[in-house]
Design brief:
Blueprint lengths: L3 H24 L6 H29 L3 H23 L8 H29 L2 E2 L2 H20 L14 H25 L23 H36 L4 H11 L1 H12 L3 H26 L13 H18 L3 E2 L1 H19 L2
Antiparallel strand pairs: 1-2
Helix pairs in contact: 1-2, 1-7, 2-3, 2-7, 2-9, 3-7, 3-10, 4-8, 4-9, 4-10, 4-12, 5-6, 5-10, 5-11, 6-10, 7-8, 9-10, 11-12
């Protein structure tokens, strides 16, 4: 006899993304009243939960690390489209939008998603266990791409200000895309075993539940994409209300990018926490660092191409405060990853760094 709870879950995870996309089509480009903003926010939350459900179905079918890669790349592709769309509007502050959004994504994924995953994993199993070889490779790639793309522009001299010249931007784009492609090859082909979840004794965990059928996985993949379109699109729809709230509170404009990044990364956050609760901390780390890498590794090349027709400057260089936070994150992350085991302390330290980033975004 079918489980009625699962049947209900399948029904609502199918209906909510469709309704959310329909709401997106009806509200796109319009100024929304308060009641409509609340309704869109509710549908946004439902689309996030639906995205997590369908990502887990796909991940169960294809196995790790492909499942984590599917969610990370899907979210990032849509996020990149959102950034380019907002930059094309040419509103004040759009010249720093790519930098603010990408850096917020890096800090949220490394310190937020990874931190809460380690915390949950350690709470459930005393010690969170993961593979330092695969995790170290991911972390090194993330920090390299971030430094090349967001730190170097502050110090280059060809063009005044924290900007790349066209040739420098092209180099950063090619380097980012090349490193990301190399990582994907290592994660899915040559060293796939480095990215598989481990138990407390360092043994690869096996799936015991029956995987979904190919048809169910394909349907979930389609609904996952629909859910992610709804998440990002509705996040943009409520962004004017967010901007108005930020201005009314007297916060810097960069806070808008942080809030939208938090909304866009919500599916990965929930999926990572659920994996950590099942003892699959490596899967959580694949989601966090994979999302950070996809975010910056795909955004910089996309922005480089878009800059051909976009008008106005493109500010990528970080300021001193953010560079200090990035340096502290790199040092702390390295010390966390090297042992391959983490306790509540490491999770708490990363969440403390996220709290510092969020506080300084509001009060720079």
């Amino acid at each position: 006899m079918a489980n009625p709870t699962r049947t209900t879950a399948r029904h609502w995870t199918t209906a909510v993304p469709v309704v959310a996309v329909a709401a997106l089509a009806l509200t796109w480009g319009r100024e929304l009243p308060v009641l409509a903003v609340v309704l869109v926010a509710v549908l946004l939350a439902g689309a996030v939960l639906a995205a997590v459900h369908h990502a887990e179905v796909v991940a169960h079918r294809v196995g790790e690390p492909f499942g984590s890669l599917v969610l990370a790349v899907a979210v990032t592709v849509i996020e990149v489209a959102l950034i380019v769309t907002l930059m094309a509007d040419g509103k004040p502050g759009s010249e720093t939008l790519a930098r603010d959004t990408v850096f917020a994504a890096v800090m949220i994924t490394i310190n937020g998603i990874m931190g809460v995953s380690l915390l949950v994993g350690a709470l459930r199993h005393r010690v969170a266990t993961f593979n330092p070889e695969g995790t170290g490779g991911m972390f090194a790639t993330v920090t390299t791409i971030t430094t090349l793309s967001l730190v170097l522009p502050t110090f280059t001299t060809t063009k005044p200000g924290p900007e790349f010249s066209p040739a420098q931007l092209a180099f950063a784009a090619v380097a980012s895309l090349g490193l990301y492609a190399l990582f994907v090859a290592m994660q899915t082909v040559r060293h796939r075993d480095y990215f598989l979840p481990l138990d407390e004794n360092g043994v690869v965990l096996e799936e015991h539940a029956e995987p979904p059928t190919a048809k169910a996985a394909v349907i979930s993949l389609g609904l996952l994409l629909v859910s992610l379109v709804a998440v990002v699109g509705n996040a943009k729809a409520v962004s004017p209300a967010i901007e108005a709230g930020v201005e009314a509170a007297g916060f810097p404009l960069a806070v808008v990018g942080v809030v939208i990044a938090l909304l866009v990364l919500a599916p990965e956050t929930l999926a990572a926490v659920r994996a950590a609760r099942r003892g699959r901390v490596q899967t959580s780390i694949n989601l966090s660092l994979g999302s950070a890498m996809a975010s910056i590794g795909l955004t910089i090349p996309a922005i480089a191409i878009a800059s051909i027709w976009l008008t106005g400057p493109l500010v990528l260089g970080l300021g001193p405060t953010h560079m200090v936070l990035l340096a502290l994150t790199v040092v702390t992350g390295t010390l966390t990853i090297v042992p391959g085991r983490a306790t509540l302390l490491q999770g708490g330290v990363h969440l403390g760094l996220l709290a510092a980033f969020l506080f300084l975004a509001v009060s720079p």
